[in-house]
Amino acid sequence: MLKLSASLVALAALVPLVASQAAEWGQCGGIGWTGATTCVSGTTCVVSNPYYSQCLPGAASVSPAPPSSRPAGTSTAPASGATSTAKLHTLAKAAGKLYFGTATDNPELTDTAYTAILDDNTMFGQISPANSMKWDATEPEQGVFTFSGGDQIASLAKTNGMLLRGHNCVWYNQLPSWVSSGSFTAAQLTSVIQNHCSTLVSHYKGQVYAWDVVNEPFNDDGTWRTDVFFNVLGETYPQIALEAARAADPAAKLYINEYNIESAGAKATALLNLVKTLKAASVPLDGIGFQCHFIVGEFSGPALQTQLSTFTAQGVEAAITELDIRMTLPSTPALLAQQKTDYNSVITACMNVESCVGVTVWDWTDKYSWVPSTFSGQGAACPWDQNFVKKPAYDGIAAGFSA
Ligand code: XIL
């Protein structure tokens, strides 16, 4: 009994010492860091970049903090591990692709550590606005257009010499209620779509490489989404939007963008049939966007390659438009290693299909990923972690473009 108490006292005395040291793989320094700057025994504090130093490596494994004690999207496993110093857009170009790019969003642009990396046009040769060109942002009231957010992204692309993807004209989501809850005749809604797409695409005429004119038209079972557009206009609405976009900017590539078409299935078949129908009717359609919101270890690169080939055989180009590969948190070295393999598989699939023109990640850092707020308990989906440290995934991408 006495002996046990003595042990407990001894253990308690050790606790403050342990807590004042960063755990293996933990942060131990960097600009703005106020936590521990020494590492637990067996590990060394190594500078990854000015913003992040980490306790590396060490045999003893330290349990990560439970998810509830960490901010959403935080990765707890070793984030470093990327060794490539090559720049991804440079690699993509050398490999014959048009670009490697990223989504970005207006609120992030006040983060100067973020923009320092975003503005590197050897890293990113293309950007997509994550939100600010969507319908709710651009025509919140009927006939009232607001382009300030979109203009900020467009001018960033211009200043940095990056391609711009427009995202998007017609989508069931992020619609202002005057559209989603409006009651329209077919003629009225046709005119609403024409006016929206035409005004939006005209505004950015000459600045946009490709527009996602129609976003996510199908349910996973291959049926059409029953949104206001389909309910009022049936299968004709993509044609209305595509023709309005073509008239507004004849030089822009016009895309349909979709997810869960990256392997064979009802949804991919439905979209393929739509592509065939539109092409047969000479409706302007230049590309298919494969969003590629994946889960670590749960997709097949060869299946993606087959889909890219199948769609581009119809005379359209393809692009990977919203790539991220999420995991259930906390991240582990094994998950990050699988994520590296998975990123590499996506790049390899695009590399093996000539008409796959480029790859866009849906933001490059976990700090601004949409994943944690959308998929509960999941995150760490981007190639850089929340401290802007390159993850093993970065090497997977670099190797994919270099193969
Ligand atoms: C996401 C944005 O990243 C989030 O900030 C927003 O809250 C919801 O939309 N498919 C798409 C994108 O086509 O527009 C979505 O972007 C992610 C899924």
From TrEMBL:
Pathway: Glycan degradation; xylan degradation. InterPro entries: CBD, CBD_sf, GH, GH10, GH10_dom. Residues 1-20 form the signal peptide. It is found in: Secreted. One of its GO terms (biological process) is xylan catabolic process. The keyword Cell inner membrane does not apply. Its EC number is 3.2.1.8. One of its GO terms (cellular component) is extracellular region. Keywords: Carbohydrate metabolism, Glycosidase, Hydrolase, Polysaccharide degradation, Secreted, Signal, Xylan degradation. Residues 85-400 form the GH10 domain. Residues 20-56 form the CBM1 domain. The keyword Secreted applies. It catalyses: Endohydrolysis of (1->4)-beta-D-xylosidic linkages in xylans. Pfam families: CBM_1, Glyco_hydro_10. GO terms for molecular function: cellulose binding; endo-1,4-beta-xylanase activity. Belongs to the glycosyl hydrolase 10 (cellulase F) family. This is Beta-xylanase.
